Amino acid sequence: MARTPTARKTSESTALVNWDEELAKQAEVAAGMEANSGGGQFFSMRGGQLSFNDSPMPGNQMAVVIIDSIFENVYYEGRYDPENPAPPTCFAFGRDEDMSPHEVVVKAEQAQNDSCKGCPLNEWGSSDVGRGKACRNTRRLAIIPAGTFDQQNRFQAIDDLDHFASATIAYMKLPVTSIKGYASFVKQVAGALRRPPHGIFTKVRVEPDAKTQFRVIFEPLSQIPNGILPAIMKRHEEAKSLIEFPYNLEMEERAQPPTKGRGGRAAPAGRGAQTPAGKPARGRKY
Q1: How many domains are contained in the chain?
Q2: Is residue 210 part of a domain?
Q3: E strands present in 112-270
Q4: Do residues 147 and 158 make contact, with C-beta atoms less than 8 angstroms apart?
Q5: Is the residue at 69 inside a domain?
Q6: How does pLDDT run across 118-160, given as a tens digit for each residue?
Q7: Reported pTM
Q8: In whole angstroms, what separates CA 222 from the centre of its chain?
Q9: How far apart are CA 167 and CA 236, in angstroms?
């Protein structure tokens, strides 16, 4: 029996829906394959001044949501030359300390060891100067803006769900000397508020330090309202697929003046912390 026009239309409509679902799945796979090659824009802490896109943050602080973070090990060969800035020789990312050189590094035959654990450059005393490590163990954070501070330094949260669903993700590479402070902050939030960093609004500020020139301070502001949490959780998953984008081993990075860190190498938040994304940030400014 021949199909009626109504039956044919229903069948075609169902087929289109099925194709849409399948294409959506394949889009996620394709995006995931390309996610780690897109690059990202980093906050600068040059000279102890917190800035983004060359714009200083008012009060040297900002209110944000830290939607994700990873471990980052990075090794620069030789001393830092501000006249001839160079990308890292070897680097690795991970969710725990069981890390190995990024596939980009391996492909370029620049891996210094099969894994970070046991690598001679990841041992204390391996630095050319001092007792530090030649390979810096730091953190990379994914961040979106959460609000502003008024003249009395009181936090004013952004009251716009669309903002949290679409705000540009920016990144921060922590100085090695601020790692312990960040770890303490994460433990504090987990213990007192029973939330991860992406479950609260956070104040991030940079302040002078006599020993290390400056340090990054993290302070909990308030819990993220339940109405915003679904959007934040989606951004968290998005950031997890993006945050491990590699450094471009062939691209000359923006020059940043060195500071006196342990090991006599580049400033912890300098070299490698300004990998260009190629396009200006979109969405609400920090």
Answers
A1: 1
A2: yes
A3: 135-149, 155-157, 170-173, 200-209, 213-223
A4: yes
A5: yes
A6: 999 999 999 887 788 999 999 999 999 999 999 999 999 999 9
A7: 0.74
A8: 22
A9: 12
